[in-house]
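BUG: 3D viewer hangs when loading the predicted structure for this chain

Environment: internal workstation, default settings.
Expected: structure renders.
Actual: progress bar stalls at 90%.

Input used:
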Amino acid sequence: MKRRVPVLVFAAPTILLMGCSTLVDVAGLPHTGAQIDGTYVPTDAEKSLDCMQLKAQVTHQIDRTKEISSAVPDDKKRGPKTVASLFAQIAGTSSRGVKTIAEYDKARMRARTLNEVMRSKRCQTVDIDAELRETDLIVAAARG
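Structure tokens produced before the viewer hung:
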């Protein structure tokens, strides 16, 4: 005779893990990756990269940031897609109301953090501000 395992047995761990990751973010506990406060904590794998690998990662993030910035004006024109996004724009935190600006901020912060890892390893760093000067102006205009 087959035993049926309740769906809850499988769903409960997933729900618990989702709740834990959300709790970690809300509590502000540091973890690798993007943080709720806009900073980025590099992973152990990222910290272990050599100078050439880190430069490739930073360059990739700069390219990604530039790519994202080209979508910002159109995303801003379309306006918020959710009620929460609308309230974020009304409250003056419009970067949270436009998904591409939030993605831009994350990509830029990751590039900056990986550049700092390069600096700590005495690698030649990249001038991120110079690389992103034009895109920063596009995003700044969209922020209002």
